[in-house]
């Protein structure tokens, strides 16, 4: 085999290897793009859906006591966490006194403000509705309240889910899906939403009772 033939075969082999490498890179890019397309489309669909849901919601109510309630609950929780963290230091200081009466009185006082106060505040404010939004597309209402840890919770309900008790409880305007809620009708942007929630837009039934058939015959 001559030297020229060897050179020609070597150049063809190099070209063949380069072609295979290019084909491999192209196929890997196609696979990578295929792998990324579903995730990108999923994120795009999710963001689009979230924007549509946000656009469908219309604020119709705002509780004017919302800032005060959040501030008081945050201060109470912060004080409770500080009080719990300081328990070991307080125990050492009070134990050094050696007076059992002082120790019991001090821990009763600290325990009241550390544990009882946040629970009392939550019991009073858990029914207070901070915001109400109306979903234009579904016709549902979204009521927002604040939980024990001062985090906003949402309750979505329909007007048919609302039950107005004959005797309203403390801080209770109505019940939606079994949860008692308190709203001030004066703070609705549009009073018709309050009327719709409470069922005041429905026709009034003036028929107090039905006469039994036996009484009608007599």
From TrEMBL:
It comes from Brassicogethes aeneus (Rape pollen beetle). The keyword Ribonucleoprotein does not apply. GO terms for biological process: mitochondrial proton-transporting ATP synthase complex assembly. The keyword Electron transport does not apply. This is Transmembrane protein 70 homolog, mitochondrial. Keywords: Membrane, Transmembrane, Transmembrane helix. It holds the Pfam family TMEM70. The chain crosses the membrane at residues 71-90, 96-121. The lineage of its organism: Eukaryota, Metazoa, Ecdysozoa, Arthropoda, Hexapoda. InterPro entries: TMEM70, TMEM70/TMEM186/TMEM223. Belongs to the TMEM70 family. GO terms for cellular component: mitochondrial membrane.
